Amino acid sequence: MNIVLLGSPASGKGTQADLLCKKFNLYHLSTGEVARKLAEKDQRIKEIIDSGKLIPAEEMTMHVINFLSNEKPDLKNILFEGFPRFISQFEALSNFLITKGDNLDLVISLDVSQEEAIKRISSRRVCEACGENFNLITKPSKFPGKCDKCGSNLIQRKDDNEDSVKVRFEYYENNTKELIDYVEKMGKLTKVNGERPIDEIQKDLVEIVERVKNEQNNN
Ligand code: AMP
User: Fold this and answer.
1) CATH number of 3-114+163-218
2) Name one GO cellular component term (predicted).
3) Residue ranges around ligand 1 (CB below 6 Å)
């Protein structure tokens, strides 16, 4: 089963994706993580990410398709987080999966208002070593300033500053919303209210995935 999780910056995509992947044994493909890895060796990409801009759509598509074709050719059951963000990326991914005899089974959009997302961003922290996400209010670490997983320091993401956040929302409004409308018109979108506690949202998501799995088993 392949799932796409769409949502604005700080909609909780990463947290929910982690939980869903553990529950259903899915491979978590976060293109934010892919991009941050690329940025370690590529100053141009680092500047794009830090400023809140997106990597050009086709370039990011190429990284994803190359990764799936070359590094994980036998991979099945993927949860895509942060990709696609453009209609062109959605089409490219759908076509790629079809050539592998596979499919996109479920597209979920996690909805939060911009006001709520901005509030979350100011309290978001990330582990500088392993990348695990925390939130001072909704998902605090056990020891302040330290990662639960590896004990390293928690920092703010470079692109979580006011200017970059503004740019990231512009991209969301101008591109990803267009994609969400597009998928909705195809009748393929499931919307979930993301302005609730983490476990409540997860419960809904698990039910949605289980429903689709049962439908597939009955066909
Ligand atoms: P995220 O962690 O999903 O907020 O992604 C961090 C950054 O990675 C973005 O601001 C972009 O610069 C880059 N990125 C991630 N996914 C994509 C994508 N689908 N298309 C273009 N750039 C992306």
Assistant:
1) 3.40.50.300
2) cytoplasm
3) 9, 31-32, 35, 48-49, 53-55, 57, 60, 82-85, 89, 159, 168
